[in-house]
Amino acid sequence: MNKWTKTHTYFLIGVVIAVVAIYVICFFMIIRPLQVEMNNVEQQLDMVEKRYETINNQSEQEELDEDLENVMLKVPYGESPDQVLSNLQVLASNANVQITSISSVGSEMDKEPNEEDEAVKVNRTGYSLEVQGDSLEDVNEFLDSILESERLMVMDTLLISQDEQSVAVSVTMTTFYSGNTID
Asked: Are strands 120-133 and 153-162 parallel, antiparallel or unpaired?
């Protein structure tokens, strides 16, 4: 075996210095720019995610606003019970069913809106109906026509009884109307 000489030591020091120099050069020429680029890409990704969330929230808000506008178009100004009754009678005659009984369950006004709320109050009136029809299809047509009517009406309870000759339906429903506006 050879003895460790001064030449070997200088050679080893030279190799270590060369390896360190190559590492430093590679770090500043390759690794550091890649780290900077990765940070930039992460920042751009964050910006894109924020834009996406903003656009998504805006589109959801626009959809909610559009839905609210459509619902408010079905909510007339004022209670108009005579209009509700005549509308129900027309729907019943179109569906070949007879309204045997109708009564008002009562009105309920919403509480005063906060400053943040819209300036229009929405109130509700409940009605109880007893309907008689020859077939379940006629009664279903009547119930569907209530839901599709020009005025917003929601069925709260529904009780159907059927025998061989007729179908009887008891419905409790709520109609909505806008109340006073607040200045």
From this structure: unpaired
Please give the model's pTM, rounded to 2 decimal places: 0.56
Question: How far apart are the C-alpha atoms of 40 and 178, rounded to whole Å?
Answer: 53
Q: Among positive and negative, which fits the CA dihedral 65, 150, 125, 98?
A: negative
Radius of gyration of the chain (CA): 38
Contact between residue 161 and residue 168 where contact means Cβ atoms under 8 Å apart:
yes
With both helix axes pointing from N to C terminus, report the angle between 136-147 and 81-94 in degrees, rounded to the nearest 10.
140
Side-chain half-sphere of 130: how many Cα atoms within 13 Å?
4
| Model pLDDT for residues 84-131, shown as the tens digit of each residue | 888 889 999 998 999 998 888 777 665 555 545 555 677 888 899 999
